[in-house]
Amino acid sequence: MSSLLPESELRADFARRRTRQWLIVIPVFVAILAMRAAGDSKNPTFYGMPTSVVIAIGFAMVIGAIVFSLWNWRCPSCSKYLGRGINPSFCAKCGFKLKG
User: Which of these, 39, 78, 42, 81, lies nearest to 57 by C-alpha position?
Assistant: First the structure.
């Protein structure tokens, strides 16, 4: 299923999707670090919050990021998932050239 948009707009859409993928890495990285620190802590609290709450919030953020990636990381031309790579040159499903 090809899009009716010009290739330049589809490539711009891919660039926005890639930027969002990079931006989601930051809070997930922080969540993983917080979960690790809370889990290694000898105290029952981590910055005033119970460690179990910190770990649960971090886990929810990681799951949320996965769901977001499954929604966001799609070819702008055929809407198929782009796979695990962060910087593909083309869509493996339809062959659309993602970079100009």
Answer: 39
